[in-house]
Amino acid sequence: MELTKQNQSAGDNSTQMQAGVINNYTIVNGIDEARARSIWKEEYAIAKQELTEEAQMVAVNRVHQLEEKVMPKLLAYDKSMSFFADPSFQILLRKAQITAAASERKADYDMLAELLLHRIEQGEDRERRLGISKAIEIVDQISDDAICGLSTFYAVSSFCPNSDDFYEGLSVFNELYEKVIDNKKLPNGENWLEHLDLLSVIRLSTKGIGSFKKMKEFAPAIFSKHLISGIKEDSEEYATIKKQFEQCGISLDCFVPHPLKPGYVKLKISNNIGDIYIHDHVIDTDTTHMPLNEAQIEVINKVINITRKDESNNEQLVSKLMEEWDKYPTLYVVRQWWDKLPRFFSVTAIGRAIANAYIQGKEPRVPCLY
Questions:
Q1: Signed CA dihedral, 219, 220, 225, 227: sign only
Q2: pLDDT > 90? residue 93
Q3: pTM value?
Q4: Which residues contact 187 (CB under 8 A, 6 or more apart)?
């Protein structure tokens, strides 16, 4: 959309709402950045009334740091910034300023900025908005080790690797967990859990009721696409399949070594991608982009049925998976910590909001999950 400068007269207290350029700020049917920052100051003028003069001197710098975290995120999300005219957002903005004023922890400003952005992204979803609103009120009350433990637990239990490359998936997870832990020590015992339960971030189960699966049982679900049969490379069956591929004109690049079964190969196709290939009648490899005819689809389906048999209960495969998992230093630390979680708990909407905000502050490329 091309923006043109508009001529318009308005009263002294009105806000220009048309598309145009005002004082070097671009606006699109909304509120320009200068007005958004003005609203920020108006809300803080209300918020700081609860503080003494001495406390205001401390708070002003903290709130300014939050402003410098928030504004670029909101402007990047929507240049119109029309959400600044929403009374509910203004009230939440004031709550975030109060929380920032009460916190000396710089990481809290990052989390508050993410939470405000998530509040806008969630639109009319009142349940998620409530969780975010409550999270903003308590960010400054959560201890460092509790945030670290909560976010690590959430990252492990919520994210799966997109890559069809087994070792790339392990590497991505190791990097993510490393960023989330951020050189801190993961919390042990029950104090951090009781702390989070008190803040309604998690709900602890009664002692002795329920427990988490050990990582050896949990990790196979994350890497289930690799716990499959494959096909033995020196078998007659594989020789027949290669011949059928050649006869149909399908590249053998579709086959790659099975990461967990030496001497076996598997199709370089993930569950979801496999469906897309068949539905779109196209096969993609590093060297091929080829529409499939009916004969080729039939051969591909046959090989999928042979090589993708579920072997998630194969103890040797699971043991090999965990052997490879433990070769990555942060994954090893996370496994040891996870297996010692003392009590079962569930993460509340407040906890999900905080974990998402914390994780995205450490690694913006991960999706926001609610």
A1: positive
A2: yes
A3: 0.83
A4: 145, 146, 148, 149
